[in-house]
């Protein structure tokens, strides 16, 4: 069973709010990812964690702060976002890095007002 | 560098028609190739994959063959259904440490009864 669970499914937040997106997987995967997807575009990589350590940050603004509390959980903390940050945020996982298949969650739809 | 070029959409077909969505790639080395599908309002689902030349991935009646000589991974289905209406993304992973996915731009398929 390949399942990545994301909450909340929808989030509306103001530009001064602090909120978090949460992601969980119980497949024993050791790599987890955050992607951002704008309308009618492919997903873009934001962060990669490998064995709970941040491996890649694709020059993402500091208003996005990832956290990996343990091997099953991945959070994305949001603060002082802009309306242009409104998008679908996809969490994903893979068994490890280096050529392993990446499995995506259903995504969290974020609207910044 | 790595890149994926995907057939421009949208594609509209009648039910039971034959589907081909073209995908070609540029990569250093020997990438893994994937087709992901995104149904309206949802995240990405892995549809099929192939990890080496001449491999054929298949799932739910969809097929794609990894052609190294033409650097292609075209998606085909013999008889589409209305429920196949979705956006299809071709992607490659270069099997190096980052395990990043390089996506095509996506092809929107609409199947009409």
Q: Can you describe what's shown?
A:
The complex is a heterodimer of chains A (113) and B (113). Chain A is mainly β and 113 residues long. Chain A contains no helices and eleven strands. In chain A, strands 2, 4, 5, 6, 9, 10 and 11 form a seven-stranded mixed sheet that branches. Chain A starts with a strand and ends with a strand. In chain B, the strands form three sheets. In chain B, strands 2, 5, 6, 10, 11 and 12 form a six-stranded mixed sheet that branches. Chain B has a four-stranded antiparallel sheet with strand order 3-9-8-7, with no helix packed on it. Chain B has 113 residues and is mostly beta strands. Helices cover 0% and strands 50% of the residues of chain B. Chain B is globular. Chain A binds chain B through residues 2, 6, 31, 40-43, 45, 48, 55-56, 88, 90, 94, 96-107, and chain B through 32, 34, 36, 42-46, 49, 51, 89, 91, 93-101, 103-106.
Largest interface: A-B, 26 and 25 residues
State the low-pLDDT regions of chain A, or none: none
Oligomer: heterodimer
Fraction of residues in H or I helices of chain A: under 10%
Radius of gyration of chain A: 13 Å
Strand content of chain A: over 45%
Total strands of chain B: the figure is: 12
Globally, the shape of chain B reads globular
What is the count of DSSP helices of chain B, taking H or I runs of 4+ residues? 0
Helix proportion of residues of chain B, in percent?
under 10%
Through-space gap between termini of chain B: 41 Å
Task: Give the low-pLDDT segments of chain B.
Answer: none
**Main sheet makeup of chain B:** 6 strands, mixed
How would you characterize the largest beta sheet of chain A? 7 strands, mixed
**How far apart are the first and last residues' alpha carbons of chain A, in Å?**
37 Å
